Amino acid sequence: MIEPSTVAIADLELIALAQQGDRQAFGELVMRYRERVIGVVYRMCGDSQLAEDAAQEAFVRAWQQLPRYQPRAPFQSWLYRIALNRATDVLRADRETVEVNDLPLVAPGLEPEAAMERNALYEQVRRAVLALPEASRSVLILREYEGLSYKEIADTLDIPLGTVMSRLNYARGRLRESLGSWLEEGV
Amino acid sequence: MNGEHALQELETYYDGQLHGAQQKRIAAHLEVCAECRAKLARLERLSALLGEVPVPKGQLTPERFTAQVRLQLPPREAPGRRRHQWAIPALLVGAWTFIEAVSLVSSGLILALTLGLGEQLGATWLNPAGGSWQILQSLELGWRGALPLFSFLTSAVWMVLLPLALLGGICILFWGWWVTWRHVGARE
User: Fold this and answer.
1) What is the full DSSP assignment across A6-75?
2) pLDDT given for residue A173 in this prediction
């Protein structure tokens, strides 16, 4: 198993090379962060195809802005910020064309009835998350899916710590309301 | 501990963002408060429920995704050239300012000399003809005064034309720089 510190150092080296224009190093960074960036964008816009396209554009923007990146800030947070901005742009540009209908496939091996029930659950959760205001949704995604601390979220979104807490509290409150039945029953 | 404020504090505790005395206080409270334990359990269930929803498998493999990103990457400008890019218009403006200043001073001196004010300005070494009013003198002199009058008119025309010519030259130089830069950028 690779030690986290080794990964972090390697990231810094790759970032330094990419800052000097090394496309191969940047490609390695894309490989490393691809899944997380797609995940963040997908949770924001709810469409897997759009998420892939927007994630690619986010990486291209990251490449363009990389010379100005200061390693003092975590690279992941910096990248998430670009990805969330791109997701917001996509949502605003394609508001009328984004459809929340590409259900993810459930794990194989489930009985058809159980699979249908699981799909219904996924759809309801996804719709509940997408119904949140963008500002609260981005905070919720960074906390619940990416596990960022309040401080990291505040730095990523450039908002005060108190705003992170209030937005998270608001988002969870709305989800408790819309997913009440599932929360009572348990998963 | 009750109400919305308490719930937010409980969330902060749940997220592991409380430390020291605050954390201990909430932990102690949870031991005696069934209502808050239920709230905490709901928070845990909500997180579990959110985590259940997977991200659909993308259409592109990681390698293909990366390759497509790399194809879209625009060329990176050489750091050295980018660092000095700002200096080109700055140098042009600096040169223009210098030439304008020199032109203004020399035009002023030429006018002063033409009007025979060299002595009054204390620049007798610039005015060997002495401190006379050359225009009036040249008019009085008739055809013999044509040369000083011609000299005065030439100086006046130069005073207007020279700055205009310099301004035009700087504009052409700046435009040339801009077009060249655009052309090089587009080629890259």
Assistant:
1) HHHHHHHHHHHHHHTT-HHHHHHHHHHHHHHHHHHHHHHH--HHHHHHHHHHHHHHHHHHGGG--TTS-H
2) 93
**pLDDT band at residue A66 using 50, 70 and 90 as cut-offs:** very high
Q: How confident is the model at residue B9 (pLDDT cuts 50, 70, 90)?
A: confident
Predicted confidence (pLDDT) per residue in A40-53, tens digit: 999 998 888 889 99
State how far residue A187 is from chain B, nearest Cα, in angstroms: 6
Q: What is the ipTM score, two decimals?
A: 0.82
Cβ-Cβ contacts under 8 Å for B37 (sequence gap 6 or more): B30
Tokens 């002199």 belong to residue: B141
The closest CB to that of A23, out of B51, B52, B73, belongs to B73
CATH topology of domain B3-71: Arc Repressor Mutant, subunit A (1.10.10)
> Which of B88, B62, B58, B75 has the alpha carbon at shortest distance from B174?
B88
Best of A15, A29, A50, A56 to disrupt the B interface (most B CBs within 10 Å) is A56
Tokens of residue A37, six digits: 């960036």
Domain A1-99, classified CATH 3.40.50.1110, yes or no: no
